[in-house]
Design brief:
about 325 residues; mainly alpha; Ribonucleotide Reductase, subunit A; binds fe (ii) ion
């Protein structure tokens, strides 16, 4: 990442003019929560496709939001790196990171725009919404990465997850996935692999050398963020299902049952394996092993067991 920071990047070449092909997946079905619920196998192809499209739109909004928010932490790190006379290539790589994320946010917006069926002439509210108090709190934490390096743990797991979403989606046959989505996943994966490497460097500088109480506090914060927001199919995933049922009135009578199944997905081992595991997020898991403060993540993540036993627990 440091070496590549100054190199020119080739641009994404897709046309944003035509609407999306609604007969194809927008994202690999295995990353959508309801895929892990019994009801999924009973759906028609059309119902599965529309659920898939709405979930992909939700991912576009969610990833775009975090990409913009993380830029605050990364820019704070740029300022510190420059003031401390750190390796100039490191701040150049951080600046490239911020520029990449701004570009990605434009891609997600374009994908969302062309994912609205042309018949829907009313603008739909976003599927990803963050309560304003939580958004303000997050903004304050992200602006202070020295005190709250938990921001870089969140960045690492989200970026590793976005890599896995791309990887799974690219494994589909070419004709099965919407071509613009495919191209964005391909290009995004290329950039994000470098970002994950940079996240590890940020943790090395901002988390590893800190005092044990500060690491413990941040591990606790990160665990809470995972348990409440980043792991279970809660608010946004429910909003997707609500909108999907509103668009598929034949499912209205099963609304309570489907929402109940969605909630149960949060404790499904297969869903956990897809979300956070040594196959989907291997770099984060190996870093959890390294820090004893992170070993208590086994209370939240069904697939995590510290590779090294911790005698202090
Ligand atoms: Fe990105
Ligand atoms: Fe990224």
């Amino acid at each position: 990442m440091l070496r590549r920071a100054g190199e020119p990047r080739d641009a994404l070449s897709v046309s944003w003019d035509e609407p999306a092909d609604f007969d194809r997946w927008f994202v690999c079905p295995t990353v959508t929560p309801l895929y892990y619920a019994p009801v999924y196998g009973e759906l028609t192809r059309g119902e599965q496709l529309r659920y898939n499209h709405l979930t992909a739109i939700y991912f576009n909004e969610l990833i775009g939001y975090f990409e913009t928010s993380f830029a605050v932490s990364v820019l704070a790190a740029v300022g510190r790196a420059e003031a401390a006379g750190d390796d100039a290539r490191f701040s150049a790589a951080l600046r490239q990171f911020v520029a990449d994320e701004q570009e990605h946010t434009r891609w997600w917006r374009q994908l969302t725009r062309l994912s609205q069926p042309s018949a829907a002439n009313e603008i739909q509210p976003p599927l990803f919404q963050i309560p304003s108090a939580l958004g303000t709190l997050l903004g304050k934490l992200l602006a202070r990465p020295r005190l709250f390096p938990a921001a870089f743990w969140i960045m690492l797991v989200l970026e590793e997850r976005s890599l896995d979403i791309s990887r799974r989606s690219l494994r589909l046959e070419v004709g099965e996935i919407e071509p613009r989505y495919r191209e964005v996943y391909r290009k995004h994966m290329e950039h994000e692999a470098a970002h994950v490497a940079l996240d590890c460097q940020l943790l090395e500088r901002y988390f590893a050398p800190r005092s044990r109480p500060l690491r413990w506090l941040n591990a606790r914060l990160f665990r809470t963020a995972l348990r409440k927001f980043l792991l279970p199919p809660v608010r946004g995933a429910k909003r997707v299902v609500e909108r999907w049922i509103a668009e598929c009135p034949q499912l209205a009578g099963r609304r309570t049952e489907i929402l109940g199944q969605l909630e149960a997905v949060g404790s499904s081992p297969d869903y956990h394996r897809m979300m956070y595991s040594r196959t989907s997020t291997p770099i984060a898991f190996s870093l959890f092993d390294r820090f004893p403060e992170m070993h208590a993540l086994d209370r939240v993540l069904l697939c995590y067991a510290p590779a090294v036993k911790d005698r202090d627990r």
